[in-house]
C-alpha cells in the first residue's frame, strides 16, 4: 500500500466480525477506539490503557491481542473478531457463553467480552484444560466482580469437565435452567 | 405508607430462593450491553482534564493559547469560571469542616492533591481533547503539603483548607459503657501503640464515564453514566449548576462496577455540563485508569493509636479503646459520614460491653476517599478482629475458642450493641465451625507442624466479620444535628402493560448485582407469572417515579429496601388486578388468586381471566368496568419500602443504625516462602449468612467477589503516596489487582439465619465486610507466632520478610 504522508488520516479496510469495514483513521488511532467509536463494537472495552486488564481483547488474524495495544492502521487488510461474533447465527449463545451464564461467571459484564475471547483462544489452543491451566491462561484478564472462581468453572465446563453446580442448584439442573 | 412485611407462606415461592439464571446475562455475553462509553451520540464532543502534578499548589496563571491552536479544540473551562458559574455542593458536615468548598475544578484556585482537575478542555475527538489539554500551560506555586494523617494533626502542619483552620474535619468522642472501669479491673490489658489500615480501592473495571446532553428546547440537561445515587446526584447538580431540579435527568444503563465509589460522579459531571452548555454540544468524559486511581475515590485509610483491650482470665473480652485518625484525603465528599458509619458495627462480632473511641477525620493532600465496599465498617472490624487475634496470641488462648467464646451467641439475637444497634440474627459459632471444616483445620495444623523448618511456613487465619445493611440515614445527625435525614426508603414501580405484560422498575441502581434477576424472581412469585414474563427495566432513570430521594445502591441494602419496595408495589398491582377480574368474573376481589398468568376464582378455577384480558379491559375498554373500579385502577403499583427506624439519640450517640447484619466467617491456610516472603493461598473458605436467600447463586458470586477484593487488598493493592505526595500506584502495573492465577479455588458454604426485620428474611450482603483482610492478617500472625506482630492490613512479600524477622514485636505489650 502507498502511504500518503500529507494526509491527516489513512484509509484502512479490515474484516471485522466477518464484514468488510473501511474507515479513515489517524496514524495513532488505537484499534480499540476504531472498533468502538467508528463501528459501535461493544465487545472490546477499555479498563486500563496499559495492556493489563484484557477487557479489550480481540482476535487479530490468528493472534489474540489486547486491542488497546494495536494501532488501527496495523490491522489494515486483516481480520479482526470481537466477542460480538461468538453467538450462533440464530443469535443463540454458544457453548462457552452458555457456560458463563450457567455458572454465573459474570456480574457487571464489563470484563466479560475479553474473558470470552481469551477463553475461546485457550479452549482452541490444544492445551490441556485444568484448573491450573485455565487460571494461568486467563491471568491477562482482570475481573473485579466475580473473584474468577466461577469464570474458571465456566471455562472448564465448556471444555466438557465436571465442575460443581452454583450454590442452590443441583448439578443435573445447571444446564436445563 | 407503613412497612409491609410479607409473611412467608403468603406467596408461593417458585422462583424466590432458587439459583435462577440471570436476566442480565444474554446481552452482556453477546457484547450488547450499554455501558457509559458505549452509547453513540450525534455531534458528540469529548472532555479531557488538565490535572495538577503537585500535591498542593496555588494556580498562578493558566494559558490556554496553545490549546486554542490544537486541531479540533472547542473550548475550555477554568477554575475562575467555575467559581462564578457554580454554587458549592451540599455538604454534610458542620463546623469547622463546612468551611471547605469543593468544586469540579481546583477550588479557590488551589490544587490540593496530585491529579486534581484544574482545567477542563473540550474537543472534537478523544485524541484532540487530550492534545489540547496537553497544550494548556498552568503555572503553579507549590505549597507545603502533608500526606500522613499523623503529621496532618500536628499544630504546625500545612493546612489543606485554609478556611477550615485545621486539618481535622470531624472530631468525635464515642464512649459507651465504662471503659475506665474495664481497664482498671480487667485481669489483663493488652496495649498496642499503633495499627494501620491501608489505602486501597475496589477499582471497578469500568472507570467513570459521563455523557451530558443539553436540550435547549426544554432547557434540560440529561446525564448518562454510573450515578450510584441518582436523586442525590440530581440535587447536587441542581445546586451546583443553579439549574432547576426539574430540568435535570440522570440516567444509567449498564454500569461496570461501582462498589460505592461512583457515589460522587456529580463532581466531574458538573464540568462536563458547564462545557456542554457553553459550547452547545453533547459532552462525554471517559476517565482513564490513571485518572481513576488518582481522583476516582479511594477507600478510607485509618490509623488506630493507643489501642487497649481488657480481657478476663477466662478469656472474656470486656472492652476496647483507641484513637482513630481517618485519612480522608483532600476533600470530604461523602465524609465525614465514615466517622459515624463504623459505629453500625461497634461491637464487631463480639459481646463487648465497653468501647471508647476518639475519632478524627483528617485532611491530607491525597486523593479524596469515597465509600468503598465495606465502607468505614471494615476498618473497625479489622481492628477488633486484629485485637482479638493479638490478645489470643499474647495471652495464650486458642484462637478458635477465644473467638467462639466472645462471639454474640445464636440465642442472644436480637442483640443490642453498646451503642444501641440491634444485630438481627446469626449463628457465628456454627459459621466458624463450617469454615474450619472447609479448610480441614486439623489437617492444616498437622501440615503446619510437618513443614516447620522446611523453608515453607504455614499460617492459618480466621476472619469474622459483619456486613451491616440498610442504613438509618438518621445517623447523619450524629455528625451534624442540623441534617434533615432519618430512616431509609427505596421505591419500586410495577405495572401491567396494554397487552398484559408485567413491567418492574426499581429505584435502585445496579452495577453487577443482578437486580433484574432478583426483582423478576419475587414479582413472578407474587403475581403467579413465569420468571421470563417479568420485564425488568435495565438501569435507572431519575425521571421515573420509581425513585425516592435516598434511592441508589449503597450500604448493602437492595435485598431489603429494593426488594421490599418492589414487593409493596406488586401487592398494589395485584390488588388492582383482583378488582378488575372480580368485576369481570362476577365475584369479590378476595375470591381471586393469581396463578399462571391468570386471575382465577379460587374455588371455581374454570372462571379465569388471563392478564392480557385484565389489561385489555383497563387499557381499552374501561366502560366494561363499574365506574368506581375504572376510576381506581391504572394497573400501576408504585410503592416505597420504609425501613422501620427511629432517629438516634445524638447526645448519647445511641440508637439502631442499620436494619440487618449479614455475617461472614472466613478461614484460610497460607504458605509463606521464608526466602522471598511470597505468600501462596493453599486453602480459602468462606461461610456467609445473609438470611433467607433470594438467589443463592448470586449471593455466592458476590461473596467470591468481595473475597477477592479483600485478598488482593491484603496482599497486593496499596494506593500509597511518596513523600512528595505523588501516587505510586496509578495504573494496574503498580496497583496489582489479583488475577485468576494469584488465587485458589474457593470453598464456600452458608448458614441461613432469616432476618426477623426484613421483608423476605433476606439481608443485604454485597459488601462483605472485608473478612479476607482479617483472615490473612491472622494467618500471618499465626505463621510468626508472637515473635512479630501484624499491625498493618497490607502484607506484601517485603513486609512478610520483615515479619519473619520480628517486625513490631515491641509495639504490643501485655501491661497486666
In words, what does this structure look like?
Chain B: It comes from Haloechinothrix aidingensis. Chain B: Keywords: Molybdenum, Oxidoreductase. The complex is a heterodimer of chains A (177) and B (816). Chain A has 177 residues and is α+β, with helices and mostly antiparallel strands. Chain A is 25% helix and 14% strand. The longest helix of chain A is centred in the middle third of the chain and has 12 residues, at 112-123. Chain A is elongated and about 65 Å long. In chain A, 53% of the residues are buried. By secondary structure, chain B is α+β, with helices and mostly antiparallel strands. Chain B contains 21 helices and 30 strands. At the A-B interface, helix 1, helix 2, helix 3, helix 4 and helix 5 of A face helix 1 and helix 19 of B.
Short descriptors:
heterodimer; A: 177 residues; Ubiquitin-like (UB roll); 2 domains; five-stranded mixed β-sheet; 14% strand; elongated; B: 816 residues; alpha+beta; Aldehyde Oxidoreductase, domain 4; eight-stranded mixed β-sheet; six-stranded mixed β-sheet; 21 helices; disordered N terminus; iron-sulfur (chain A); 2Fe-2S (chain A)
The level 1 CATH classification of the largest domain in chain B is Alpha Beta
The assigned CATH architecture of the largest domain in chain B is 2-Layer Sandwich
Strand proportion of chain B, as a percent range, falls in: 15-25%
Q: Roughly how many Å apart are the termini of chain B? A: 55 Å
What is the number of strand segments of chain B? 30
Keywords (chain B): Molybdenum, Oxidoreductase
GO molecular function (chain B): iron ion binding; oxidoreductase activity
Pfam families (chain B): Ald_Xan_dh_C (PF01315), MoCoBD_1 (PF02738), MoCoBD_2 (PF20256)
Protein name (chain B): Xanthine dehydrogenase family protein
